[in-house]
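A student in our group prepared the protein record below, which I am reviewing. Thanks in advance; the entry in question is below.
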Amino acid sequence: MQFAFLASLRETLEGFVTVEARVAATVVLVTAAAVTALLLAPRTVRVVHRVVRDRVLGDERVPVEVSESDWRLPVAAVVRTLQFAVLLGAGLATLVVWGYVAVALAAVDAMAAAVPRILRLLVSVGLVGAALVAIDVLESRLDDYAAESEAINQHQKGIVFRVLQVSVLVAALVGGLTVWGVNLGGLLVGAGFLGIVVGTAARTTIGSLIAGFVLMFSRPFELGDWVEIDGEEGIVADITVINTRIRTAGGEVVVIPNERVANATVSNRTRLGQLRLSTDVGVDYDADLATAEAVVSDALADVSEIEDNPPPQVVPKSLGDSAVVLECRFWIDRPSAPRRALATAAVVRAVKAALDDAGIKIPYPQREVAGREETGGFRIAEGRGDPRDLAAPSTAED
């Protein structure tokens, strides 16, 4: 039916054989095209835009916060496209009226041959635009989820967003290549061989990359935590998908590959908000142990740098070579290396002063020396006035 209509229209246009009829038909065509392009097309597009916008904004399922800026139809682009189509149709009709049918048909054939390319270009542009819109929507939804949930922190949100962003862009690229008829099978085979080569050459980096994603979601530590990783102690300064950086108390930045972090023992000292510390003190064997414990316990109770809850404890730890060792256990809040050093120093000062005031001796290292019985032991050397001078062990020749 469409072809019959076009054939009838062609016969009608070719029916204008006189110059006057052709001029009149041309004036009518130009006038109709001008009115349609300059008046009808803009009004029609604006009416359609307004109706669709009002329906979207008037839908109860759409939030109240939705505004006109949240849904924008490219009105100007649509109007210009319609105007171009109207003027092009009028031009082709004018060529037919004046007898240039072959020229008009050649122009139509050329446009018909270009239509598939134009459509592919439009689809490609549409895929890019859809990918950008999808990335914006994903970022907005991810921000809302991260703000409302404690299951994901800001650093993890950034990693998840980058992964989703790359996934959307790759999907748009694959769709664009498919639209243009590119053989994806050959590309996949080449990408497979390239992946094998890159994986073999950079297996350590890839291992750290995988370990980085595992650390992001297992969350053994976060930025700002005081940790000890494989013997390295400090504050977590940065976590990337390749390595973890910690800042030591000495001002150094230690970079540890994530593969090493994943296989190491990690001590997180700030996760619970409190940390128990201990220091040892030795008292003389002649001192009353219960009295010494009470004195040390009272001294710990007066130290402001440590916590009252849980309370500090004094526990006999061992029988040393020259003293009974008491272990002083105490807690600090908001653990950090400086707070640990300050608390430990305050405890040592308080315990030392309390024991001195109580007259309890903190003995120096002592050794008890005895000679073997079969050699006669030690004896005072003959001819020595000072009894503190010891002679060598006696022998049979003495």
DSSP finds ten helices and eight strands in the chain. Residues 2-99 form one domain. The beta strands are 226-229, 232-239, 243-247, 253-257, 266-268, 274-283, 313-319, 324-333. The CA atoms of residues 223 and 236 lie 5 Å apart.
